[in-house]
Amino acid sequence: xxxxxxxxxxxxxxxxxxxxxxxxxxxxxxxxxxxxxxxxxxxxxxxxxxxxxxxxxxxxxxxxxxxxxxxxxxxxxxxxxxxxxxxxxxxxxxxxxxxxxxxxxxxxxxxxxxxxxxxxxxxxxxxxxxxxxxxxxxxxxxxxxxxxxxxxxxxxxxxxxxxxxxxxxxxxxxxxxxxxxxxxxxxxxxxxxxxxxxxxxxxxxxxxxxxxxxxxxxxxxxxxxxxxxxxxxxxxxxxxxxxxxxxxxxxxxxxxxxxxxxxxxxxxxxxxxxxxxxxxxxxxxxxxxxxxxxxxxxxxxxxxxxxxxxxxxxxxxxxxxxxxxxxxxxxxxxxxxxxxxxxxxxxxxxxxxxxxxxxxxxxxxxxxxxxxxxxxxxxxxxxxxxxxxxxxxxxxxxxxxxxxxxxxxxxxxxxxxxxxxxxxxxxxxxxxxxxxxxxxxx
Length: 442
Known about the structure:
Helices cover about 70% and strands about 0% of the residues. It has 15 helices and three strands. It has helices at about 5-15, 35-45, 50-85, 100-105, 110-145, 155-170, 180-205, 215-235, 240-245, 250-260, 270-280, 295-330, 340-365, 365-395, 400-435, and strands spanning about 20, 90, 95.
């Protein structure tokens, strides 16, 4: 019933037809990319260096049974919710190329503003997490060769933010990533394979591991709720309409193909690294897996370099909606993308945006907590609550009572989970802020 997702109703609409006009002008490219390129964008987001954190941040507080089932269920419900969003891309005779455009059309001006705010929070926090990860990779490289504690994590985060800004200056829009998506995939395979193989070797050579969930009963409740939020964070971008805007017609059909590739083959590296890492190190697994693995120094260095460079590319995906908004607002899509005018604008505006990201990352470098809070404040509302409710609003006269009840169940259930996860995320950040000083060298 629910999983069929009104296939019969949608089939005719999904089949190729005339391209619809975009809902608004944009300085960036739309209807330009092959569905395979879009699938690489999606899988790059899933298999970024964030995968090095899931064993420690989700499996440790959840344990084998809940963690494994949770990852599989999170992927299934994420595919479902994202497919709903993909099928709402063409409504009202226009393509809705931004999340806020879609919400604004269905609900009105207030939801347009609220959705934009939620999405901004989501993307800002994801980008902040990427800069933390890049800083951790740099710090890990330094520690491999020197143990003098001279290069602290905040300095590494500052360096990472600067490199991310340099990359942002040279990539005008999401479609321009092209070859960089291939580079990102190659770099991702390096640190994923290294983490997987070294964890496997370490696990085989270690006679026993402790898989007990650490902490007191009360702290475990907050950690469990937080880990559940991290599960949905792992599979979702919070910017599906913006990614879908770049795809060639037939838009919905091609986006569904990209999503199925993401949630089948695309999630396998994430599963491999997460489950093998937890199996190898148990409750002592680090929130940055490469800090737990034992093996040749040069191999770990290569993996950390790959993680750092891949993070620089992946961050650009999640910063692109903000860049698109600013470029469009100030008319920076005209002429050559590499004219002095346009490059100067990117240096000033994108540099300023990433400076703020970098400052927050250095101030509160608690990666797991950021994943929890991001899942609570934005991924749950945007991907699950809004997706189901917007589908109800847009298709209300065409859905039977049973399907309406199913969508309402999703709306209420995920709203409750979002509230619980937000409380847990804030609690974890408060606890960590008391344990560590600001600008902590973790």
